[in-house]
């Protein structure tokens, strides 16, 4: 029995052209189907993908700043709350935390000096998020208080805008990539105290996220953001241009560059790997992606990280089965308008694929089985 994706629907956001830059599925399914969000310009649109193939726009958030342009969005839920939260960020460098069910901003995270290109959610603690920015840093936040927990930048950090960040499955490491052609792996063990202190501040209802009141009602600062300057692994040799997407696949990494290729590789993360002349890694597979010279085209993976979907500037989406290690995609999908695909996302069950495109539309395909 063979499985393949068939086109279901295309939906245009707004009456005027709003190029879509990001798409993300909510990991918490509803009885009606799967929620997902697309973002572009100053809008974030929440949609419901029903099992019947119907897609309904639930509501649209419009930022108060008309000059805002959202580039990324992601979903989370805090343990002591039942509300699903939608995070969005972009041109202004401000991370908006939106109550997804009611559509209002609960909190804004301010700290980046330039645009935010990516938001990642910790796989075990939904209150911890990471952001990647053009200010050459990745940052870790606790959204329960809005405190900045750590800054990953500096001496051996990126030397250009950071375009993507992702956690490993245990939430112990992060991978970042960027405009400097670099890919880096960071360990969160360097900021364990700050993470714990940020949670304590949240439990004690800290007024600023960093301090609590002692028995004498004097404010005591528990922590300051940790400045992490030394990654576990760093290389500038893997790709020869901007690296605009990188994700963990177990202990392996999948990364995409604007040089028309996606690589699956294994880093050698030891002290020797930090030396600029000894960046050791092993490339396991090379997936060609023609017409992807433009940066800011990100791939998507299903939840068990076995399928990878990536679009290009010609409206073609290639899907690979990572386990097979074959360069040729298992399936190719086409956008009727042949517009550039900014990002792809799979539903939590892997049966729905959404592509956000620069023509202001998102496109949906559903997995069907055929003899």
Automatic annotation (TrEMBL):
<comment type="similarity">
    <text>Belongs to the WD repeat ESC family.</text>
</comment>
<keyword id="KW-0853">WD repeat</keyword>
<feature type="repeat" description="WD">
    <location>
        <begin position="341"/>
        <end position="371"/>
    </location>
</feature>
<feature type="repeat" description="WD">
    <location>
        <begin position="109"/>
        <end position="151"/>
    </location>
</feature>
<keyword id="KW-0804">Transcription</keyword>
<dbReference type="InterPro" id="IPR051243">
    <property type="entry name" value="PcG_WD-repeat"/>
</dbReference>
<dbReference type="InterPro" id="IPR019775">
    <property type="entry name" value="WD40_repeat_CS"/>
</dbReference>
<dbReference type="InterPro" id="IPR015943">
    <property type="entry name" value="WD40/YVTN_repeat-like_dom_sf"/>
</dbReference>
<keyword id="KW-0677">Repeat</keyword>
<dbReference type="Pfam" id="PF00400">
    <property type="entry name" value="WD40"/>
</dbReference>
<protein>
    <submittedName>
        <fullName>Polycomb protein EED</fullName>
    </submittedName>
</protein>
<dbReference type="InterPro" id="IPR001680">
    <property type="entry name" value="WD40_rpt"/>
</dbReference>
<dbReference type="InterPro" id="IPR036322">
    <property type="entry name" value="WD40_repeat_dom_sf"/>
</dbReference>
<feature type="repeat" description="WD">
    <location>
        <begin position="155"/>
        <end position="189"/>
    </location>
</feature>
<keyword id="KW-0805">Transcription regulation</keyword>
């Amino acid at each position: 029995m063979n499985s393949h994706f068939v086109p279901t629907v295309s939906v245009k956001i707004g009456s005027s052209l709003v190029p879509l830059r990001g798409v993300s599925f909510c990991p918490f399914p509803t009885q009606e189907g799967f929620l997902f969000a697309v973002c572009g310009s100053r809008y974030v649109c929440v949609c419901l993908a029903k099992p019947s193939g119907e897609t309904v726009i639930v509501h649209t958030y419009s930022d108060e700043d008309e000059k805002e342009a959202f580039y990324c969005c992601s979903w989370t839920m805090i343990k002591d709350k039942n509300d699903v939260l939608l995070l969005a960020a972009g041109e202004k460098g401000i991370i908006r935390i939106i109550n997804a069910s009611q559509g209002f901003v609960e909190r804004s995270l301010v700290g980046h000096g330039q645009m935010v290109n990516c938001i990642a959610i910790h796989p075990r603690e939904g209150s911890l998020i990471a952001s990647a920015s053009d200010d050459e840093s990745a940052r870790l936040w606790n959204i329960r208080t809005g405190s900045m927990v750590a800054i990953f930048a500096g001496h051996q950090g990126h030397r250009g805008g950071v375009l993507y960040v992702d956690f490993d499955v245990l939430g112990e490491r992060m991978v970042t990539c960027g405009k400097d052609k670099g890919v880096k792996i960071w360990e969160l063990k360097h900021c364990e105290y700050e993470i714990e202190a940020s949670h304590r501040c949240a439990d004690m209802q800290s007024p600023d996220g960093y301090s609590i009141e002692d028995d004498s009602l004097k404010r005591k600062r528990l922590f300051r953001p940790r400045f992490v300057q030394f990654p576990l692994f760093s290389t500038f040799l893997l790709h020869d241009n901007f690296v605009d997407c990188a994700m963990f696949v177990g202990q392996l990494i999948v990364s995409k560059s604007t040089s028309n290729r996606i690589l699956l590789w294994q880093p050698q993360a030891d002290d020797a790997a930090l030396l600029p002349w000894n960046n050791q890694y092993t490339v396991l597979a090379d997936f060609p992606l023609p017409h992807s010279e433009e940066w800011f085209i990100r791939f998507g993976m299903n939840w068990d990280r076995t399928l990878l979907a990536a679009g290009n500037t010609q409206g073609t989406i290639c899907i690979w089965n990572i386990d097979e290690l074959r360069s040729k995609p298992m399936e190719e999908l086409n956008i009727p308008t042949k517009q550039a695909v900014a990002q792809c996302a799979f539903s939590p069950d892997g049966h729905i694929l959404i592509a956000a495109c620069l023509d202001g539309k998102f496109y949906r395909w559903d997995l069907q089985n055929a003899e």
